[in-house]
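tool_call: predict_structure(chain=1)
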Amino acid sequence: MFIDYYERKVSTPSDRVAFDKFVRQIQELKKEELNWDIIKDSVIDVYCEKFTQKEIEEMLAFYTSETGKAMMEKLPNAMSDARKFSSKAIHSFMPKVFEIEQELKDTLEDSSVSE
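tool_result:
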């Protein structure tokens, strides 16, 4: 998430104060704009459109099971860890992409000059 991006940029106590204020503002905005009362009807409509009644009942059974509860508890941290890994992978990947892109630009430039 973009919050992780900004947290990595915190290097001074004043940065920390600004970052903490930013996080509080985002959390407050999320409570106001994305709370369940606001999105509930739309989410229900999507589930009713995409899943059968039987599928919804089976999902409810899963999420109320011990395994489903464990998944709901652990999944946010697992996804956060996975994002951190993919972020590191992207940081290694992108410079290589830019290098390959530059090679293409150079080749195209050379061919347009020779025409």
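agent: Residues 66-114 form the longest helix (49 residues). Proceeding to next step.
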